[in-house]
Amino acid sequence: MFRPQLMIAAFLLTFQAAVAMGQDQPKGLLSIGIGKVKTLQAVADAAAAAGTTNQMQRVVEALDSQLIDRFHGTRKFTVVSRSDLDEVLGEQKLAASGNVDESDDAAAQAFKLAGCKFLVVMTVDNFQDYTAMATFAGTGESAHKRVVQFSAVTKLYDTTTGKLLESTNYQCNNKEALNDPSYQQAHGDLTEALFQAMSRLMAQKVVDRVIDVLRPAKVIARTDTTVTINRGDGTSIWVGEIWNAYAQGKEMVDPDTGASLGHEELKVGSIRITEVDPLFSKGEVVDDHGVDTGQVLRSQPGQTQPPQAADAPAASPQ
User: Fold this and answer.
1) Is-contact 49 129, C-beta < 8 A?
2) Are 92 and 113 in contact (CB under 8 A)?
3) 104-147 residue pLDDT tens
4) Are residues 62 and 208 in the same domain?
5) Distance CA 110, CA 96 (A)
6) Which pTM does this prediction carry?
7) Which domain covers residue 255, as residue numbers?
8) For the segment 286-313, what is each residue's pLDDT rounded down to a tens digit?
9) Are strands 219-223 and 226-229 parallel, antiparallel or unpaired?
């Protein structure tokens, strides 16, 4: 039962189709295929002209392994063999286009051959590695500064229907990677460590988005003001982060298309993460209007994770 004063907030409900989708998924680990990371031909041509083909390829190869590692680390997916996926992707020509004819039943059948319920396809659509001149405010002094950045479009398909479920475009740059402990502690080839850190960050962004769509975070237990949620250290959850809790209402249906628009949602409180374990995390309820088990949780927007401690001082990108 909601408190009466909260009913007014019903006018501010948000409709999240992704959450409805996640609740409809079967119990247990979801089988997911990770397609080989591809690069747009125009991006490859630009890298060749700039003499950065090798750097771009190192990022792409790192993304391949990092995606598999990050998805496996969530403990919520069974990752399907890459060798099976290469054949399926070739048949569907997704390697070049990233698209599939949703009306073609044969497409869904071919996807099934890989033995995966879902398929992730990533395409790098921008890559730049150059040196810029930076001028420091106040002193007027200038210095050369390396800039590395890339972006990628990631698509999530339901293999039983061949339909596109989600499409995202994320960016990553070397500035973000500077706080990665693995880069801070790097010795030897700093460029290689930088690319690894950037690829890991990009892969984590993708995994967090996919898991939000297919397996939204939920409250699985509450004792007094302590709650347990089904997110562990394989995701980007961190101690001190604030998550909002939402009670779910009736399903919303588009009157014109008959398609589900998700469910009504009502914010019923917030929790602060106090502990992150391999399989779950714990938090303290800091705003309570009926936080209870089974409710969906989402990280509060606009938060920034504090820099992680490292055993060695931060290295500078070469």
Assistant:
1) no
2) no
3) 555 555 555 456 789 899 999 999 999 877 777 777 677 778 88
4) yes
5) 17
6) 0.73
7) 4-17+216-299
8) 999 999 999 999 999 888 887 654 444 4
9) antiparallel
